[in-house]
Amino acid sequence: MWCKSIFHRGRSVFLLLLLLAAVSYQSGAQSFYFDETSARFVDDAVFDSLILEKAIPIARSNGLTAEEFTSKYPAYRARFADLLLGMLQHRFMELRKLFEYNLPVPGSNADQQAKSKYIAEINKAIGRALENPAAFYPLFARDETDRILSFHSDIVVHPNGRLEVTELITIYNGDGGNASSNDDIRRGIVRDFPTKYLDSNGLWTITGFALKKIYRNDQEESYKTQMLGNGTRIMAGREDVFLEPGIYRYRLEYETRNQLIFHGDKDELFWNVNGNGWVFTADSISCKISFPDKAKLVEYNCYTGSYGATDKNCRVKQLSGNSILFTGTRRFEAYEGLTVAAAIEKGVLVPPSSTGKFLNLLRANYIIPVLLLFTGGLFAFYLRTWFRKGRDPEKGTIFAQFEPPAGLSPADTGYIIQQQYGTHLFAASLVDAAVHKELEIEVVKGKGWFAGTEYNFNRPGETKDKPVPKSAQSFGFDLNRIYGQSAAKGKYNSTLKTLNSELENHLKSRFLVRKGKSNSWHGLFTLNRGYTWPGFLLIAVAVILSFIFMITGFTMPLLIFSLVMVALLIVIQVIFFNIMRSYTEKGRDIADHIEGFKMYLAETEQPVYNQLAPPQKTLELFEKYLPYAIALGVENQWAEKFDSIIRNAMETGYQPAYFSTHGSFGTSFTMNAFSQGISSGLSGTISSASTPPSSSGGGSGGGGFSGGGGGGGGGGGW
Question: What residues does the Predicted membrane protein YciQ-like C-terminal domain cover (predicted)?
């Protein structure tokens, strides 16, 4: 029986020594130091031992094991220190008077007696302090909440910038009872490690992360990883294995790079020890940093609290010239953490090369090289294609031509020179038909401020009982179908739309070179649209990739860059989409002739024209070439030449052959304004009347904070 009693007593002493060693390793918090005399007889270890000796029985009576209580004790050590030193102040001052000038020889009976006096006073103070255990709540309360009992990070910094990190995480897995606030742990812990950080320029940088091993209670543990938007998630444990309630010790070993900050006068590690993403509380958090042997610490700091906080509930202890220990001095709530910063003199750590930093920048901000590649590649592709396929034959010398190329209608000349169709060509054809007295255009001005103009298209009176002449079929559409139709802005007319499309198809069949199709006249130019589809595809891909990147990597500089690059892609596409059109040799000759004719229509009087014997300006000449001027976009300049002639004719009752209106022109009449009104007004009305309603659009040296630096992340249970 006595052997059994001795065994249990020895086991308790051994457990107490182990727990005391654990406390000494974890804490490093506020010291029990009162003065040099008292420190001569009792140190921190004595205080801790005496407190644990009296507190553990109380904890056991409340359902806590010695190990559970010891793991919680470091977070409350500072409270014990403040309370006991205050209670012992008077007695320690009296004891100092006894021994200050008459210190006994260490190890002597007098020395042991003096030490016993100090221990006796400490035991009395501890007894009084523990008379009300509730004052230390929740230290003595059994808490079934899942939580971190201790989190210690051991970091070894190598000269090449590589970090070896060992995280020792002791957790308590509660059973979810006793009003617990967290019961997340089922299979094990979750540890999130960020590998993507934002720099001062608003750009991302990537740090390396390589997990080596995970241990649970000194046995290698299974795990799986998940890629997050900004890092890696580690899930320790197995899907089919559930943990019993109790204390578990995890050890995570990993390596990481690109975590150091290279200042001009120092090199620094700014490290978020546990991360501000843990859903668990933490009773204690500590971190030890060991730089290379030749390093010399010059600056250090620590910060605690939620993200962005600048509290300093932490203690720093320099262990040697190149190593340092940081310890939190209070309990950490969920989403709170410890961030540390330590700097050494330059010359020991090797900074990354410029090439390495540049490649890291491109990898972390992949949208930059992708959009640059898209833009540069598209421009190079289009430029090469334009040189091979899109360049026109060399332009000839342009000189004034007093008539259009033979056999070409106004719509023909406009389509050839502009290489695209527009409703102004249909308007020019209508005016041309009116000039040839095969159509009458009645202009009806609306009444009121916002009333528009309506255009009625009638068969001329002298041809009402005659068949449509053969010449009327040369306008590119069935002229007979337009008789009796009207056009007004905002009113859809399906017949006008059909005739407008007929003219467009007629012009394409005559002049546009298309693969697999022959031309009814001569193929004069090609649009080369087949070479422009890569641009539309790249723009779509660029927009999609930018959107995907911004979901997880949004920063204002990168958003602006993406918008600018997409806009540049669109500009390149628009430019080359338009200049990719090219003339054939014959098309170039005819286009040069039309350019000369356009020059004659547009230019004001020049002496050289008189030497070339231009045709005499008459009303018939004006009407004959007005449709061409409308098609070529120079109707205003052409009308201006005839302003005085038409004014004089108006005084004698002149009525234009190609349209009729009601009332007089008024005293402010000018041919320029009249021509502009008939061309732009008719063209705009035709465009509006040809558009279905459904196709229109509807309406370390300070300045840091908790959560800053590398490392960090968070975790939980699964």
Answer: 402-642
Question: CA 137, CA 58: separation in Å to the nearest integer?
Answer: 13
DSSP string, 690-710: TS-GGGSPP---S---TT-SE
If pLDDT is split at 50, 70 and 90, which confidence band does 246 have? confident
Burial-class residue 574 by CB neighbours within 10 Å (0-12, 13-18, 19+): exposed
- Give the closest residue to 293 by CA, choosing from 156, 165, 154: 156
Instruction: Give the model confidence (pLDDT) of 184-215 as tens digits.
Output: 888 999 999 888 888 888 898 888 899 999 99
Q: Cα separation of 369 and 379, whole Å? A: 15
Least confident residue range of 103-107, 269-273, 326-330: 103-107
Backbone angles phi, psi at 363, to 5 degrees: -70, -40
pLDDT of residue 298: 94
Q: Residue 423, by phi and psi: left (phi above 0), alpha (psi -120 to 50) or beta?
A: alpha
Nearest to 678 by CA among 643, 642, 618, 627: 627
Q: Which residues contact 321 (CB under 8 A, 6 or more apart)?
A: 295, 296, 297
Instruction: Give CA–CA dist 637/642, Å, rounded.
Output: 9
Over residues 119-161, the pLDDT tens digits come to: 999 999 999 989 988 888 778 877 778 889 899 999 999 999 9
| DSSP string covering 151-207 | EEEEEEE-TTS-EEEEEEEEEEE--S-TT-S----SS-EEEEEE-EEE-TTS-EEE-
pLDDT for the residue numbered 335: 92
Residue 605 pLDDT level (bands cut at 50, 70, 90): low
pLDDT higher for 288 or 488? 288
H/E stretch holding 341 reads: strand 337-344
Q: How many CA atoms lie within 13 A of 71 on its CB side?
A: 22
**Phi, psi at residue 171, to the nearest 5°?**
-120, 155
User: What single-letter amino acid sits at 404?
Assistant: P
Q: What is the pLDDT of residue 452?
A: 67
Give the containing element (helix H, strand E) for 288: strand 285-290
Contact, 232 vs 226, CB < 8 A? yes
Q: Which has the closest alpha carbon to 25: 168, 218, 217, 213? A: 168
Q: What whole-number distance in Å separates Cα of residue 277 and Cα of residue 254?
A: 19
β 246-256/163-173 pair status = antiparallel
User: Cα–chain-centroid distance for residue 492?
Assistant: 44
Amino acid at 357: K
Token pair for residue 632? 């070529």
